[in-house]
Amino acid sequence: MSTKLKLNILSPERKLVSGLLVDSVTLPTTEGQIQILPGHAAIMGQLTTGILRYDGAEGSKKFEAAAISTGFFEVNDDDVTVLAETIELGKEIDRGRATAAFAKAQQILVESELDEHAFKKYQLKLERALIRQQVAAHVGDHTDRE
Would you say the pTM of this structure is higher than 0.90? Predict the structure, then answer.
């Protein structure tokens, strides 16, 4: 049994991570949050908007976090592949822009008379903006400790 996972993260626009050796991967799935460790059973699943986290990349004690939206994942023989519709690594997130997007979506939800479709759209925008802020905060908090 391997002591590491091989992580691949892809989106339609780019390949973010390819064959990165990590200790664990935590994913937001439609069934709830799941943590993948070496030796995990083969599994496929659907991702939901949330925070993807991977620990121990290349022997480091650090973790990396990313904000993702819908997609799919597969685990097979300690290979973890994540296919996300959108993904932003924590270090790529502009905190100010995420905060502004959150405030704008919140304002539209409170002040506007939206039909059901528009309401769900802005609810998702609000959720994504909140997650982006959380991921950016993790990066800032982690950087401050080093």
Answer: no
